[in-house]
Amino acid sequence: MEMFLSQKCKKFKRVCETGRIFKQRKVYMDVSKTAKKIKEMEIRGAGDIARATAKALKHTAEKSNATSVDEFKEEINKSKKILLNSRPTAVSLPNSIRLVTKNLDRYSDIEGARSNIIKRADKFILRSKKSIKNLGEIGSNRIKDGDTVLTHCNSDAALSVIKEAYKTKKINVIATESRPRLQGKITARELAEHGVPVTLIVDSAVRSFMKNVDIVVVGADAIGVNGAVANKIGTSQIALAANEARVTFMVAAETYKFSPKTVIGEPIKIEERSEDEVWKDCPGGICIKNPAFDFTPPEYIDLISTEIGLISPHMSYAILKEEFDWSIEELKNS
Ligand code: RI2
């Protein structure tokens, strides 16, 4: 009888363990789905990517049925890795992970660790949305009644500045098409739906139109400690044309777009995307390059509108210290 019971018990344990592993796999599948959406740009824009990342980590924490705190931490770490492998340039992604998983090592019980991740993820998402609103209000003060604003690609932060200005001023917007993914059309549609007068131009027309522009407002995917801004490919050409025409060039970016690792010399990686995005049925013998981003040096940037105020790109180090409060040793080991 005893033997029979112990066999039943073992079987029950095996069933529970299989169920637990199945649930764990399901969590990773959900995280992988988010990572795939980010990679394929179904979820795109540095801010949206950061919020989706925080949401995926929250989901891992909520669904985890780990039996020890170490196992829980391992699950979070595995989810982190899956998300980190999706897109390399938008530093908002690792920064979102950094801010959501901060202090995780301090927890020795699962429930404490779980609620820490959930609370931090919610806080990050809320803060991210507030930041976009605040930097929009701040940046809009630099746009004057009657101004023509040029923007590139599709940035929630840049659109926040433009829409805020439109509340009280008459403005016109020129939106670039933004080859090859044509995110400029999303911008143009969004502005038109909002009632803002908008003109769509091809990317190569920027210099021709610059003489009619009063201010350029673009977003950012990452900002280095030297103040250089990584943003959609073509941004640096626009900055060059603006500089030549003495047109103000403003970047709109939440402080989690600044890259802490650049402090210790880690370069911001520029994502190289598929050649199919440029020419799907390209004949043989042609090499296609498709970098998704470029760097605009600080010399070409007049202002960065952040949620904590307008800053010069040369203040990047101070922003990084304030936002992430790192020590060099921590950065080296993170
Ligand atoms: P927000 C986008 O990248 C654009 O480069 C845009 O300027 C930047 O993210 C920031 O966007 P992609 O994802 O965070 O289209 O301001 O490659 O929305």
Structure description:
- This protein is α/β, with parallel strands linked by helices and 334 residues long.
- It has 2 domains: 2-132, Four Helix Bundle (Hemerythrin (Met), subunit A), CATH 1.20.120.420; 141-333, Translation initiation factor eif-2b, domain 2 (Rossmann fold), CATH 3.40.50.10470.
- 50% of the residues lie in helices and 12% in strands.
- The chain has 11 helices and 10 strands.
- It has helices at residues 2-39, 46-63, 69-84, 92-100, 110-140, 156-168, 183-193, 206-210, 235-244, 316-324, 328-333, and strands spanning 148-151, 172-176, 198-201, 215-218, 222-223, 229-232, 248-252, 293-296, 303-306, 309-311.
- The strands form 2 sheets. Strands 3-2-1-4-7-9-10 form a 7-stranded mixed β-sheet, sandwiched between helices. Strands 5-6-8 form a 3-stranded antiparallel β-sheet, covered by helices on one side.
- Helix 1 runs parallel beside helix 3 and helix 2 packs antiparallel against helix 5 (110-140).
- The model has no long low-confidence stretch (mean pLDDT 94).
- 1,5-di-O-phosphono-alpha-D-ribofuranose is lined by residues 44-47, 153, 155-157, 183, 218-221, 231-232, 292.
